[in-house]
Design goal:
It is a single chain. This protein has helices at about 55-75, 85-110, 115-135; strands at about 40-45, 50. By secondary structure, it is mostly helical. Helix 1 (about 55-75) runs antiparallel to helix 2. The chain is about 40% helix and about 5% strand. The model is unreliable at about 150-158 (pLDDT under 50).
Length: about 160
């Protein structure tokens, strides 16, 4: 608490309760989970979000899923290939990398809320994103990797 010597809590009253803080020292403290929990009540990414509304919690799950899916899209896209010139390509690559890193950190921070549903949504977003953009399910492997005489499995991520 601000203004208290040695960060000690305010003294308890005769009933054992701490007196309310007044003036500029009033703080809203919420419990932060340090283990996984399954529930819709908690704060994820922003103060007061999603609150106790079930609809907002579902929105948070979709938001985290979409962020993770978008990270996989940016990780496996060749957006810079459409441009010419080394400076332009380098700037686009840097922009995409920066955006991907920022979104990945947001997913990480959401998972650090220790909410089980958010964790599952993030993992599912990464998995579906990789399936669509990173695996060969929806695209052909390069001809050099498809060798009928090879005994190696085509498990190359790149």
């Amino acid at each position: 608490m601000d203004g208290m010597p040695n960060n000690e809590p305010p003294p308890a009253t005769a009933t054992g309760a701490s007196p309310p803080l007044t003036g500029g020292n009033m703080h809203h403290h919420t419990m932060m989970h340090m283990t996984f929990f399954w529930g819709k009540n908690g704060e994820i990414l922003f103060p007061g979000w999603p609150g106790s509304n079930s609809g907002m919690y579902v929105l948070v799950l979709f938001f985290v899923f979409f962020l993770a899916f978008l990270v996989e899209f940016l990780s496996h896209s060749d957006i810079a290939r459409k441009f010419s010139g080394t400076v332009a390509v380098g700037l686009i690559q840097t922009l995409v990398h920066t955006l991907r890193a920022g979104l990945a950190y947001m997913v990480m921070l959401a998972v650090m809320s220790f909410n089980g549903g958010v964790f599952v949504a993030a993992v599912a977003g990464h998995a579906i994103g990789f399936l669509v953009f990173g695996s060969w399910v929806f695209r052909r492997p390069p001809p050099s990797l498809v060798d009928k005489n090879s005994d190696l499995s085509p498990m190359i991520c790149g």
